[in-house]
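Lab notebook, bench 4. Still working through the backlog of constructs that have no structural model yet. Next entry is a single chain of 286 residues. Request: give me the structure tokens for it.
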Amino acid sequence: MQLLDGKTLAKKIEENVSNEAKELKNRTGRVPGLAVILVGHDPASQAYVGMKKKACDRAGFYSVTHEMPEDISQSAIINTIEMMNNNPNIDGILIQLPLPAHIDTTKILEVVSPSKDVDGFHPYNVGRLATGLDGFVPCTPLGVMKLLAEYNIDPKGKNAVIVGASNIVGKPMAALLLNANATVTITHIHTRDLSAHTREADILLVGAGVINLIKEEMVREDAVVIDIGINRAPDGRLVGDVDFDAVAPKTSYITPVPGGVGPMTIAMLLANTLTAAQNHAKEERQ
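Model written out:
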């Protein structure tokens, strides 16, 4: 069993991004800019936004956070997004999810300019991913693919089973693995006999948000297990969706929580924002 160390890889990626950002600034004068919209006072969302801000600072990016009250109107959010779409200093726009119940999340995500959609949630970028074309890819699944590549784990021809079918993780994860020539199965809350699927997985990817959902008997010998879940246990610890202590000895590779997929998500956000800045700099020269 070997741990897939996302923390170390994320640091390496962040250093590369920082160096490329300096080169971009020296060549064009452009500093990559990221704008975040944070609605309400959810502690987890505030913590994530804080981590993203620190990462931008380390990479030498310009960043701004638009903090909005819980009861803000949808039109006010849309106006702010459109203002950022038109701001040449902003390369990436990130909507911190979840949004309050009275806001139409789909509509909000559709307002973001596809060229600034560094989270990869706009239907334009979703469609390009599904058809194997270049575009912005959601940061968590992209981080998983970078982690697999770092450890020379090739999905080609492997049975990849995904637990969780969200638009943010499960569905884009499936598209990336399919594009990498894996045989992909997506399971979800309505799947009958989850174990029958997970036991067939050469690569098992779990992002359901349920503590210890995956038990030792649900995993085949020498499987690669990617735990995308991050949950707060009753004792305050951060834990994943996999019963790590029981499952890890059976695996060939496994991600720890924390320190596995989590750091990769933020590293990919920086990488996507840098790409957006490079694209915008190229457009300005044309």
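Notes after review: The first strand starts at residue 2 and ends at 3. The chain has ten helices and eleven strands. Flag for follow-up if needed.
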